[in-house]
């Protein structure tokens, strides 16, 4: 099958998201997952018996539970069904969507339920990713997304004042979006007159990365139901079509021991490939909304250039002119993005869920105030791992050979 | 099977992980525990569609995904051993010095067995189908250990 084409079309027909929070002592893991699953089933208006296959994912080791998908059958509804578990770090939620899409597009299953979750309060995130650390022997000490590499890069290129203002502008816009989203874990109500104070006083984490720039870790789950075109039209009033997706990672070029610097940014490479094979010349014009996996405000600003294939300071101008705000030219993360909530195994799937809601027009208070036809969603994980996905409101000839 | 690999001058590096964790009993599991603690009652949930009483209780029936959160029913504190094992190795996570008996016990009115300690009988005398009853703990731990153990009883 040629890239950019599908064996058959796949639509999202059910969406479920829990409220995201730093703590969910009230529920155990199956109960928390069930909240999202029940919502997705109700949203689709189907029973669990109509689901053929369940794809389940989270970050391995984060809850210290072996084979969580088996325990979670109580909440996932996978009893007696084919089931897969997927764990690809931060990109897990995106990979879950890719897998569900492939499973339906292939003809293997007509209806697939994908579930991403994390209950980070229960485990020890750093313990889960810093295992086998030896900086002198090709085993990096992983700090998650906690790095100021994007700050260094932006400051080097655009100077500290402009770069720091851009990052804080991005941050405040994301917070304003988060305040609109009832599922947000963190929504502070930041305002523009706090900008200078935040830039000076927010506790520093690493270099110019400050606490206010950074995402949290959250508890929560997301569930999406995918169906073949025929079933999707029967189930949903308005299926959202998954047009194409691409996965790129370059762990080996980030390896301290075998580093062929400079790294080719995976986001830009993914965007170039995905847009080229779908005939999209001007992504900034084509897409109506972008749900980006933005672990920090610095990365959010920097990655705009990669994802939209921009040159020079075009990405900075988008931020400075507040064109990334919900009513702007290219709304970024009307949901508030990852800085608003980061239940890791669900985070990337929430990007897709939120993009799909925008296309359906029922995102709620954070609905983009104009018609959304084409949406982009990204995932980030590992040590520069990209999954980039495109969603559409209509089947109008794309995707077929 | 090949066993003559050349391991001369092949080195290993030792490491160790510390992996702290917590986990939650959940909404339904917590009510099960508080009822044990406060009323010395063992509660299950009943799935009407599948005609099954689950003990310990859970939020959903995995067969039909029905919500059982409010489908409480009391089961007996007596039951029968459906299977058991004798634990003979000591470890920090274990609740008793070895040897001790872990038994699967089907309580009166329940369709699924719970696993608990069986005491008051030498391990070699434990038998499948023997009648047992719950002994509640004098001091609460807010866990399943608010049943301290099960002991043999008259059938």
How does this model look, in words?
- The complex is a heterodimer of chains A (401) and B (155).
- Chain A is an alpha/beta fold.
- Chain A has a single domain, classed as Peroxisomal Thiolase, Chain A, domain 1 (3-Layer(aba) Sandwich).
- Chain A has 15 helices and 11 strands.
- A 9-stranded mixed sheet of chain A has the order 3-2-4-7-1-8-11-10-9. A two-stranded antiparallel ribbon of chain A has the order 5-6.
- In chain A, strand 10 and strand 11 (385-392) form a beta hairpin.
- Chain A is globular, with a radius of gyration of 20 Å.
- Chain A starts with 9 loop residues before the first strand and ends in a 9-residue tail after the last strand.
- Chain B has 155 residues and is mainly beta.
- Chain B has one domain (26-152).
- Helices cover 9% and strands 31% of the residues of chain B.
- Chain B has a 5-stranded antiparallel sheet with strand order 6-5-4-7-8, with no helix packed on it. Chain B has a 3-stranded antiparallel sheet with strand order 2-1-3, covered by helices on one side.
- The model of chain B has no long low-confidence stretch (mean pLDDT 94).
- At the A-B interface, helix 1 and helix 3 of A face helix 1 of B.
